[in-house]
Design goal:
Low-confidence stretches: none
Bound molecules: adenosine-5'-diphosphate, magnesium ion
Largest sheet: 7 strands, mixed
CATH architecture: 3-Layer(aba) Sandwich
Strand order of the largest sheet: 3-4-2-5-1-6-7
Order of helices and strands: EHEHHHEEHHEHEHEHHHH
Number of domains: 1
Radius of gyration: 17 Å
Number of strands: 7
Helix content: 25-40%
CATH topology: Rossmann fold
CATH class: Alpha Beta
Distance between the termini: 11 Å
CATH superfamily: P-loop containing nucleotide triphosphate hydrolases
Shape: globular
Amino acid sequence: MSDPTRSYEPKIIAVANQKGGVGKTTTTINLGAALAELGRRVLIVDLDPQGNASTGLGIEPDDRTFTTYELLLEEIELKKVILDTSQRGLKIIPATVDLSSADMELIANEKRSFLLHDALRQPAMEGFAFDFILIDCPPSLNLLTVNAMVAAHSVLVPLQSEFFALEGLSQLMLSVREVRQTANPELRIEGVVLTMFDGRNNLSSLVEKDARDNLGDLVFKTRIPRNVRVSEAPSFAMPVLSYDPTSKGASAYRDLAKELMKNNVRKAA
Ligand code: ADP
Ligand code: MG
């Protein structure tokens, strides 16, 4: 439900999969950049203690004085923790390894599952007028990921086109169901996106068939191809959309952004 007293209500999407190396961070950065290219104002929340999204967007360790850790566990002025990136329209709340202790520190906190939800809905957030908030989750179904799912409207699942890809999915869906039953009944699945897809590889096609047979419309039509430019971009501290705008990877992420926006119009109607 949109609130008529608010001019902008960001759509909050958790990018989650408890498997590491499936393309969560890559998808968060590049989908964020693609939405920003389309004129949307995007915030990335780096919720992984590894801080790969922060590094991949060029946030130096020295500039990470205030991070998602402070956002969750302390009172912090938003303008101190929301940083610009080199990409117009794309901002980030960075993370450092400090966040790895948050999981433990939160256990005794009564509001432990709602900290990100509340932080992203504080009144000062309205001043930033974000259209999208993308949360880059850690490779685990821990309390940080639960915070992301409680804060989010939907979960976007990157699925690596390789063997056993679907196996972890049922566990992820179980977590989504649990969050729905407890803290966030409205949580939806935004979609499953096939990443590192290789059309010449039979296995990729088998995983795709398996995913579409089992999940139907939940699987995005857009597939993200395996593309070396995508994997090079983070070491140049930029999204592949800036690093190599005409690469296959960049154009796939642009397609994904358009598909996501189209789906959202349909869902809103
Ligand atoms: P996660 O955040 O799920 O752990 P990453 O986004 O960090 O996964 O991706 C894991 C590795 O795969 C990284 O080295 C990344 O550069 C690489 N990678 C991700 N997507 C692609 C792609 N489409 N083509 C080539 N390499 C990719
Ligand atoms: Mg990651």
